[in-house]
């Protein structure tokens, strides 16, 4: 899970009061990770939470949206140390441009039905962020006007930021750091003893 | 020559438009600019939430419209941005930026690199402001680890990033000038930038993509004689800036090409999450150096220059004024540079000094392990943002306790700023396209990552 020991003793954290008030307003639970206020909401509340944040909490500035693929099987990078529930976590950060409040909203959606409502109606700036996330994770944003690919070719199959997607360049050629003894320039090499 | 030498062969005349089309309707695939009937899509593209101040409202017959492809190899697209412009005579009615030509999957790559290798990756995102990318990443790693960097490292970071801001803005000015025909500005901007890059190279070893700011501090101390080099920069730059004013600010052609062009209202800027000089040119006072101070930047005095109209001219003025302010910060950092170590004295993240490696086997092993296996970062997640020359450059970092990040997301300022191009350019003149793009100062490495 994402909570670390340093996150749990947040009783005296200066942002706790604000985090709680946001969580109460949108109907979620507040977490504080270092200086990041994170409010976890239910996927059914996703759009209404942002509506509240924009209209009532004055968080008018949409910073970014992305996702995390929580998976026990990883094809690239290190696997997780503890087993987690397989899911996508969708994250979006909004803020205001006066007080310096910044809140990251988070929600979990299942991998079988990776779909969530689009925020374009609330924050027009979410448009490209959702397109990027849809392309990279295969998450559908219901109500988004145009989820066409933005980085990859049309015929590309797969969602690169899913943990099940292998990093092909590393499959073909191992990372140089993993080979710690290189063959001498002349004479037989390790990979090809006949040469 | 006599008439006999003239060719008498008949030539098959090829008339454009008469051949049968191989593609239906074009071969743009999903990137095809959307068909006219899908109004809802256009509403979103133009921003339903925000009202645009259209210059020209009368609509001519749809049949008069023409779609022009601009780029990706156009010199004014600052890399490989491609635009599809739908023109009605000289007026752009709709436009669609097409990106992805520089996409290299850096967020995926980051998941396969250790935290110490990660700086090499992020420095290649925004290649005009590489130090800001490194700083955001390192601040996130340090926050997760609970590492406090020494005061000198903080001061060096501010010194280098503010110099980097000047060099990045100089490129913005230079290319903006070139795009509108002030070609001499191009030469001067790049010449002065070299002065700063020389300084960065002397300390970091590289002109660009420095990999200089590392978790726990910086890679090397400032080079001997750095104060003299800074003194030269501080003395030379204001003189050069005054020359730019002669070239641009006092140039009626420049003024008429930039004033009132590419206007962004504050509502549009906030709606589309535009940050950096483009936001401040609309008059919104928002600078992360003031709102979320990092690396002790709150200890230095500087102003946040603001515009009022949000046009190309205001964005240019904000950049020039920001360069003055950055030099003010650089001067203060130089005078107050603390003594001490340039990286944290924590063996978990800091490799042993070079001299120790020659005499101690343990130091060699320690060094080797740090760079092959990396260091472990405790479980946690955080979002840290810095004010890059283009706006809010943020890093969302998730660690599960291993030596590699489980997820790294970069909030790229150029990505969000570029999203607002269609609404900025809608119903403006074709000739102003390049002025508008250049004034947004997109770096495609930052957009595509």
Describe what you observe in this structure.
The complex is a heterodimer of chains A (195) and B (449). Chain A contains five helices and seven strands. With 195 residues, chain A is of the alpha/beta class. In chain A, a hairpin with a 6-residue loop joins strand 4 and strand 5. The longest helix of chain A is centred in the C-terminal third of the chain and has 12 residues. Chain A is globular, with a radius of gyration of 21 Å. The N terminus of chain A is likely disordered. Chain B is of the alpha+beta class and 449 residues long. Chain B has one domain: Orthogonal Bundle (Cytochrome-c3 Hydrogenase, chain B). Chain B has 18 helices and nine strands. Chain B has a four-stranded antiparallel beta sheet with strand order 1-2-3-9. In chain B, a hairpin with a 7-residue loop joins strand 7 and strand 8. The N terminus of chain B is likely disordered. The interface between A and B is large, with 57 and 62 residues.
Brief sketch in words of this structure:
With 195 residues, chain A is of the alpha/beta class. Chain A is built from five helices and seven strands. A five-stranded mixed β-sheet of chain A has the order 1-2-5-4-3. A two-stranded parallel ribbon of chain A has the order 6-7.
How many domains of chain B? The number is 1
Strand tally of chain B: 9
Query: What string gives the helices and strands of chain B in order?
Result: HEEEHHHHHEEHHHHHHHHEEEHHEHH
Kindly report the average pLDDT value of chain B: 82
Count of DSSP-assigned helices of chain A:
5
Identify the overall geometry of chain A: globular
User: Total number of β-strand segments of chain A?
Assistant: 7
Which structural class do the helices and strands of chain B define?
alpha+beta
Overall form of chain B: globular
Which parts of chain B are unreliable, with pLDDT below 50 for 5 consecutive residues or more?
1-25, 44-57
The proportion of residues forming helix of chain B, as a percent range, comes to: 40-55%
């Amino acid at each position: 899970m994402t909570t670390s020991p340093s996150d749990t003793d947040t009783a005296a954290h200066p942002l706790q009061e604000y985090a709680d008030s946001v969580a109460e307003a949108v109907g979620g639970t507040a977490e504080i990770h270092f200086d990041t206020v994170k409010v976890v909401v239910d996927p059914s509340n996703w759009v209404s939470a942002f509506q509240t944040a924009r209209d009532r909490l004055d968080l008018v500035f949409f910073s970014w949206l992305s996702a995390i693929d929580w998976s026990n099987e990883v094809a690239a990078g290190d696997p997780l140390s503890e087993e987690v529930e397989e899911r996508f976590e969708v994250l979006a950060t909004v803020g205001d441009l006066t007080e310096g409040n910044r809140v990251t909203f988070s929600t979990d959606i299942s991998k079988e039905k990776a779909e969530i409502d689009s925020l374009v109606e609330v924050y027009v700036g979410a448009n490209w962020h959702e397109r990027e996330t849809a392309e990279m994770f295969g998450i559908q944003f219901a109500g988004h006007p145009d989820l066409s690919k933005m980085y990859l070719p049309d015929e590309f199959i797969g969602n690169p930021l899913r943990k099940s997607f292998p990093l092909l360049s590393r499959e073909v050629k191992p990372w140089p750091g993993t080979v710690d003894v290189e063959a001498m320039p002349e004479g037989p090499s390790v990979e090809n003893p006949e040469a | 020559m006599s008439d006999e030498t003239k060719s008498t062969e008949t030539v098959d005349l090829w008339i454009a438009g008469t051949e049968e089309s191989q593609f239906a309707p074009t071969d743009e695939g999903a990137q095809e600019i959307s068909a006219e009937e899908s109004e809802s899509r256009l509403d979103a593209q133009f921003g339903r939430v925000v009202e645009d101040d259209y210059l020209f409202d009368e609509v001519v017959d749809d049949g008069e419209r023409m779609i022009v492809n601009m780029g990706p190899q156009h010199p004014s697209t600052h890399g490989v941005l491609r635009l599809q412009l739908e023109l009605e005579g000289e007026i752009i009615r709709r436009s669609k930026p097409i990106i992805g030509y520089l996409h290299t999957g850096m967020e995926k790559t980051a998941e396969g690199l250790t935290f110490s290798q990660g700086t090499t990756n992020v420095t290649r995102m925004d290649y005009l402001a590489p130090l800001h990318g490194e700083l955001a990443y390192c601040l996130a790693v340090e926050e997760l680890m609970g590492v406090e960097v020494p005061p000198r490292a903080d001061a060096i970071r501010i010194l280098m990033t503010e110099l980097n801001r000047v060099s990045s803005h100089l490129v913005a000015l230079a290319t903006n000038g070139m795009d509108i025909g002030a070609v001499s500005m191009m030469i001067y901007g790049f010449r002065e930038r070299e002065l700063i890059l020389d300084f960065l190279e002397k300390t970091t070893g590289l002109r660009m993509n420095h990999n200089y700011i590392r978790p726990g501090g910086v890679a090397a101390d400032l080079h001997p004689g750095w104060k003299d080099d800074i003194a030269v920069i501080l003395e030379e730059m204001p003189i050069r800036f005054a020359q730019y004013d002669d070239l641009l600010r006092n140039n009626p052609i420049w003024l008429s090409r930039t004033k009132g062009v590419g206007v962004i209202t504050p509502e549009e800027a906030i709606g589309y999450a535009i940050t950096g000089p483009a936001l401040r040119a609309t008059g919104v006072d928002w600078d992360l150096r003031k709102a979320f101070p990092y690396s002790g930047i709150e200890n230095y005095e500087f102003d946040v220059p603001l515009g009022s109209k949000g046009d190309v001219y205001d964005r240019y003025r904000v950049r020039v004024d920001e360069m003055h302010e950055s030099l003010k910060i650089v001067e203060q950092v130089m005078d107050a540079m603390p003594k001490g170590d340039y990286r944290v004295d924590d063996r978990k993240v800091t490799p042993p000094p070079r001299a120790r490696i020659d005499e101690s086997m343990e130091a060699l092993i320690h060094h080797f392990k740090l760079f092959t296996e990396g260091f472990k970062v405790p479980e946690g997640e955080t979002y840290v943002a810095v004010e890059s020359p283009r706006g809010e450059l943020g890093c969302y970092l998730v660690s599960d306790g291993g030596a590699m990040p489980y997820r790294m997301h970069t909030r790229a300022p150029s990505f969000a700023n570029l999203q607002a191009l269609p609404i900025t350019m809608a119903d403006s003149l074709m000739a102003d396209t390049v002025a508008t793009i250049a004034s947004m100062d997109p770096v495609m490495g930052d957009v595509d990552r």
